[in-house]
Give the backbone structure.
Amino acid sequence: MQYPYISVIIPVYNEENYINSCLSSVYKQDYPKEQMEVIVVDGNSSDQTVEIIKQNFKEVKIINNPDRIVPISMNLGIKAANGDYIIRLDAHSNYPNNYFSRLIERIGKGDVCNVG
């Protein structure tokens, strides 16, 4: 399978209890790490969310969204994204190791505009 470059966008606000587990599942993907970027858009968290990311996931790009509105976070993330495809994730979730590759495999088969 050919692996297109993907941008993973995760809007967050006060996710200190979940972000480590979520990002760990992102980096355990079977998708090639050199073919993805991870962008976290933070809505001015007042907890340790950003510090946890900076300490444990230095390669993550962090963008600030002072408006705290998820669609604005997505727009900021998309504007900063370099990927051929966007994968939007929720910080409260963990993802199976083959999640990204299955999404890209399915969208590569055509006749779909969105997969999830």
